[in-house]
Protein: Uma2 family endonuclease
Amino acid sequence: MLTEPKHITYDEFINMDENTEELLEYIDGIVYNQASPSKIHQIVAINIATEFNIFFKNKSCKPFIAPFDIILKNEQTEYPRKVIPDISIICDKSGLNDKNYIGIPTLIVEILSPSNEAHDLVTKMNLYQRFGVKEYWIVNPKIKTTSLYSLNKKGLYEQFGVYKNEEEFESATFNGLKINLKDIFE
Structure:
């Protein structure tokens, strides 16, 4: 028999988070434990982050790689949500501090692992859409694909494209940011 996850308040979560070494996310009252990434996950994350570092050098937006806490918060939300995306691009640095970022990243990349597929494909995608993350990439190292989603004028994600093998694609948000999958999946 499946049990419903226990909901806790944001204050209870903060207390829990401050007293553990585990990587925890807090989404809509539920705490999610982050698993350690696999070798291929790390390789793909480093490769994407390298491409981002080159592209964003001397630009106002900056890439951040996990583990770096993102506290999603805006005027419409009753309480914040905490996530630890694999990679995020932050353009509005007003919420940036040494410990985390409070605000909405412009682009988030999540790299799928067997333990987090449903979480990244459903829970986080819905959350990022709701908070207005302009662009969301889902990278699947197992089948070597990248799905790119971009917010439309109604604030809903539209699939901008699914790229595979050695295809090159361009960001929907950042003009000139091109990624060739052969450079990502080595």
Notes: The first strand starts at residue 24 and ends at 27. The chain is about 25% helix and 30% strand. The mean pLDDT is 92. The CA atoms of residues 38 and 113 lie 8 Å apart.
